[in-house]
Amino acid sequence: PLTYDFTESNVIIHRSKKGPPKVRKVMHGQPWASLYGFGNGPFRSVDLEHVFANHTDSPGLRTTPEQQSNNYAGGPPYMATGRDMHAIVSAWCELVPRVHDVYEHLLGEMFGWSLAAAHLGLPHTLAESFMISATDIGSGEGWPLIDALGQDEICEFSTSKEEEDKLPYVIHYCQNYWLGKWFLGKYRLDADFLSCKKPLLLEPPRDIGLKYDFYIKPGGKPYGEKKKIRMEVAKREEFMICQMIKRLNDAASWIKGVTCEEGTANYEKSFIFHNSLDPDNNEGGEKRAKW
């Protein structure tokens, strides 16, 4: 069971009419999740009569709009005791095919989780600090934890619990991140990134957040155009670029170490997403990913 105790943590709890739990811990009947920005989408965008056709008296049909948006608009990381997790997953397995019958879109599987939890009467404590993704978002993600870091901590990669407790638990890698010509985007990562011959990503110096107040898109039109960026957002971009590149390199190094023949793995950290990192050198134009 995932019964983490948040009593001494800096977790930011999303406000709801239900209020924060008296004991800030994952317990029976008290699951936790990260707040996601889909509001009451599971209850508004899905035909609930179809989803609950076999449970016409389901509590999921009697939730209030406030509960829908503030206790069930959750996503990974999900945390619950073993008993509650088994119950939610079992209900999810039953309901999610019926969700997909009427909602064939992104987030359908997450909507299924929300409806399963509501069906069981298990409102979640939603945390705004478990996850980060969009650097320019106003609220609802764990960016205040990153904003509070010192400049010397932004590109620090530590596995100590004391340091990790300062940070959100999940990097939701669904955006592009850029600062100057430093960049990371999953759709521009070459398909053979994990191959033995492919170099690792060049890791940035620790002061890129102080060097640049603009970014240049790898596929910008016109290529080389400098787009201004706010100081607060630049710090967040720096964090994502440093942390994601380091973690991708660590993952690729491990894969190479267990799959490549001895002496064939390329551990050189040299790959960049532009032809040059010099903002004033745009020769060669756009550098495309190899899929």
A few lines on this structure:
The chain has nine helices and eleven strands.
How would you describe this structure to a colleague?
The protein is an alpha/beta fold and 291 residues long. 31% of the residues lie in helices and 11% in strands. It contains nine helices and eleven strands. The protein has helices at residues 41-44, 48-51, 65-70, 82-102, 108-119, 143-147, 161-164, 208-211, 231-259, and strands at residues 32-35, 74-79, 125-127, 131-132, 170-171, 177-179, 182-184, 200-201, 214-215, 227-228, 269-271. The strands form five sheets. A three-stranded mixed sheet has the order 2-1-3, with helices on one face. Strand 6 and strand 7 form a beta hairpin. Helix 4 packs across helix 5 (108-119). The longest helix has 29 residues, at 231-259. The protein is elongated, with a radius of gyration of 22 Å. The relative contact order is 0.13.
Q: Can you lay out the helices and strands and say which pair or pack?
A:
Layout: E1 32-35, H1 41-44, H2 48-51, H3 65-70, E2 74-79, H4 82-102, H5 108-119, E3 125-127, E4 131-132, H6 143-147, H7 161-164, E5 170-171, E6 177-179, E7 182-184, E8 200-201, H8 208-211, E9 214-215, E10 227-228, H9 231-259, E11 269-271
Parallel strand pairs: 1-3, 4-5, 8-11
Antiparallel strand pairs: 1-2, 6-7, 9-10
Helix pairs in contact: 4-5
